[in-house]
Amino acid sequence: MAIQPLRDTKAGVLRTPDIGRTVRIAGWVARRRDHGGVIFIDVRDASGIVQVVLNPEDAPASEEVLHGLRSEYCIAVEGTVEARPAGTVNPDLPTGEVDLVASSLTVLSAADPLPFQITDRVDVDEAKRLEYRYLDLRRDKMANNLKARSRTVQAMRRVLDADEFLEVETPTLIASTPEGARDMLVPSRMRQGHFYALPQSPQLFKQMLMVAGIERYYQIARCYRDEDLRADRQLEFTQLDLEGSFWGQEDVLETLESVVCEVVKDVRGIELSRPFARLTYAESMERYGTDKPDTRFAMEIADLSAVFAGTGFKAFAGVLAGGGTIRGINAGALGLARSGLDAQVDRAIDLGAKGLVWMVVQEDGSLRSPVAKFLSDDEIVGIKRTLDAAVNDVLFIVADAPKVVGKVLGSLRLDHGQPAGHEDLNFLFVVDFPVFEETDEGGLVAAHHPFTSPHSVAEMRDNPGDALSNAYDMVLNGVELGSGSVRIHDPVVQQQVFEVLGISEEEADLRFGWFVRALRFGTPPHAGFAIGVDRFVSILQNEPNIREVIPFPKTQTGGDPLTGSPAIVDDTQLGELGLLIAPAVRAAWADESDL
RNA sequence: GGGGGCGUGGUGAAGUCUGGAGUUCACGCCGGCCUGUCAAGCCGGAGGUCGCGGGUUCAAAUCCCGUCGCUCCCGCCA
Hints:
The protein has helices spanning 63-67, 126-131, 133-136, 140-162, 203-211, 249-267, 281-288, 314-321, 338-350, 377-386, 402-417, 457-462, 491-500, 505-519, 533-540, 571-577, 583-594; strands spanning 22-34, 39-45, 48-54, 74-83, 98-109, 166-167, 184-187, 195-198, 216-224, 236-245, 277-280, 302-303, 325-332, 357-361, 367-368, 394-400, 427-431, 436-438, 444-446, 471-476, 479-486, 526-532.
């Protein structure tokens, strides 16, 4: 019979002041050291680990039971907390000054031999970890990640609740909208041939809540985007979504700062200085070649167009004549051999450049480079001065359209300068995003959702390439943590924006008619934001991918090795939904079941 | 859709380039010894269709083709 109650104390909290107490703990066998006589068992529960001493003369259980204990057996122990004998204190363990000397031990649940060891010391294949995620989550690192995630969300709620935000849930079965990411679809049984979509974000609903007079809303919202996965992207992910009425951009950014500071204080134990840096989109692109700069290191992009204004180097002269630009970075003393430098050229070409010029500053001040012979003395001086170059520094120069130059140099900058982990936290806001982004073909597409207010509708219509919007991103260590905007609250402006974005009146009316109608009933000016919780926690925990802070994530091909999702459903279910599977797909099912 | 990396007893790695007996290391597992260890120790043992399929070869973990899975990246992610 098991001891009742199973436990009255947590394993990880026992300390010297507890010496002499008789306690009951329950947990898992993390490690056993069986000396034939005395046996030491590290018992782990959610609070930590304590060493249990099983003395044969105390006979806490039969010899068979005691020597039969194995890794991850779930057990209950009653015993006395005792001081460890001199010289046997374990300073690496919070409970290391005490032993729990067992008077009784019960096996609550045995465990099969493990598919992998429960330890942070070995990197097990991730598919195997996911297949046995319940064991993987027993590891300290994963348990700590889940704790950090919980503390993160609690800190968010604490700040927003104190600021009188209302936590409101919005539907997850909604109508599909074709813009943006691919929707995750759910077929309707009651209206066959019709589909719900899972929300990519609660965008329109939170705006409805502003119309509804909620004034301050937030939600820890699950969002879904049916796009290819990455280290920082899952099919489903979590956002802290918030919105406020009678708000402008500064109100949003200040609220975000207070939320983020509380989270970082709680999880990392450090005070961030406020306000966070603010950078315009244009400045960010200019200096870092990206809209999500990692500002933990400099290596900024410098414009060399002036240096080469009258150059005799035809490749550069041609780019300048064609309206392109010439920029470079100083990657520092990389110590690369010729082959390593040429590999950078390949990398640049992969990124879309026609080429890359590298230069290495020599002891005598000259530049070693494939193009050195084309450069004048003035140009060499100008390059070194502009890039602040010292001996042995490697300089990378790209001449192309500004967009290409920024992408290539921005990527090389990260390749050679980005710190490995996330020891330091550099938050910043990027503001004044353009309304439109240029496509590779030179066309314009909306950079944001169509509910973002432009600085000026007239400018947006007359000069779309330069028009700015009241949209902003939060960036942490080169990762886009979230984005938001001041919304359009005037139905007339909203109609105009649809028009400029190329959404016809009929189309706008069909898809967003209900939304524009809502705006006609006294809509307060409002603005909001959403923070990616998974990304935030993964950075705080110094994890390389967000799966490490998600208890049951999907693999890169969207599957769950534990439960086998996604799965084929039977014909009865399909019939209820009025769905037929295409013959080719059915044939593939047959192949699958042959495996 | 495209490019890169990986797949070897239960786990992690080496072996693959340069073909020659399933070889090696660490952990785990099983058995024995062992009363103060804490990644316990010592001794012994079991355990693999080298992801899968095909090809080349006297001979394939190794070379070639295909395929599956995991992963990183490009595209995609308003």
